[in-house]
Amino acid sequence: MYGSDLYIYPKNSPMLDFLLRTDNSKTTILIRLMVGAVFLSEGIQKFLFPAVRGSGRFAKIGLPNPEFLGSFVGTFEILSGLLILLGLFTRLAALPTLVIMVVAIATTKSVVLQEQGFWEMMHGSRTDWSMLLGSLFLIFRGGGYASIDRRLSGRR
After folding, report:
1. Is residue 20 very low, low, confident or very high in pLDDT (cuts 50, 70, 90)?
2. Residue 3 lies in a domain
3. pTM, whole model, 2 decimals?
4. In whole numbers, what is the pLDDT of the chain averaged over residues?
5. Angle 87-13-78 from CA coordinates, rounded to 5°
6. Rounded to an integer, what distance in angstroms lies between the CA atom of residue 110 and that of residue 99?
7. CA nearest to 64, candidates 103, 27, 101
8. How many structural domains is the chain composed of?
9. What is the DSSP letter of 10?
10. At CA 134, angle to CA 63 and CA 137, rounded to 5?
11. Structure confidence by residue, pLDDT tens digits, 85-133
12. Is residue 58 part of a domain?
C-alpha cells in the first residue's frame, strides 16, 4: 500500500501499466457493454447451439478442425466478453475479439462480396464492423472511468 491507494501489482511493471492504463471517459462503458455483451452471448451460443453457431458453422464455411475451433473461439469469446464487461485487462481482452472479427469478415463476407456485391456484403457485415471497431476502440482507449482497470492502476 502506498498512502491511501491500494496497488495489487508492482509499480515498476511497464507491461501492466500499459494494459491497465485508461482514460477517465465516462462513456467508454457504453462501448464496453456493447462489445462485451455481444461476445459473451456469441461465445455461449457456440456451446448451446454448436451445429449452427459453433463447429457446424465453421465446417460450413470450410475452416479446418471445426470441432476444436468452435470450442476454442467460443471460450475466447466468453472470457473476453466477461473481461470487457468488467473492464478488467480491457486492452488485452479486446485483442482476441479484434482477431475474431478480422477472421470472420475475411472468411464469410469476402464470399458475399464476390457473389452478391458490395451492398449485400455491407448489409450483412454491419455487426461485424461494429464489433471490430468497438474492439479497436477499447485497445486504444482502455476500459474507461467505470472499469476495474482504472481502479487497479490507482487513477481517481
Report:
1. confident
2. no
3. 0.87
4. 91
5. 30
6. 16
7. 103
8. 1
9. -
10. 120
11. 999 999 999 999 999 999 999 999 989 999 999 999 999 999 999 999 9
12. yes
Q: What is the pLDDT of residues 31-57, one digit of tens each?
A: 999 999 999 999 999 999 999 999 999
| CA–CA dist 143, 21 (Å, integer) | 8
| Cα–Cα dist 109/125, whole Å | 7
Q: In this structure, is residue 60 part of a structural domain? A: yes
Residue 75 CA to residue 69 CA, distance in Å, equals: 10
Q: Give the amino acid at 43.
A: G
Residue 18 in any domain: the answer is yes
Amino acid at 149: D
Q: Would you report the helix, strand and coil content of the chain in percent, each value rounded to 5?
A: 75, 0, 25
Q: How far, in Å, CA of 121 to CA of 108, rounded?
A: 9
What is the distance between the alpha carbons of residues 52 and 5, in angstroms, rounded to a whole number?
Answer: 48
In sequence order, the β-bridge partners of residue 2 are: 5
- According to the 3-state scheme, what is the secondary structure of 98-151? HHHHHHHHHHHHHHHHHHHCHHHHHHHCHHHHHHHHHHHHHHHHCCCCCCHHHH
Q: Which domain holds residue 84?
A: 14-151
Q: What are phi and psi of 2, to 5 degrees?
A: -120, 110
Beta bridge partner(s), residue 5: 2
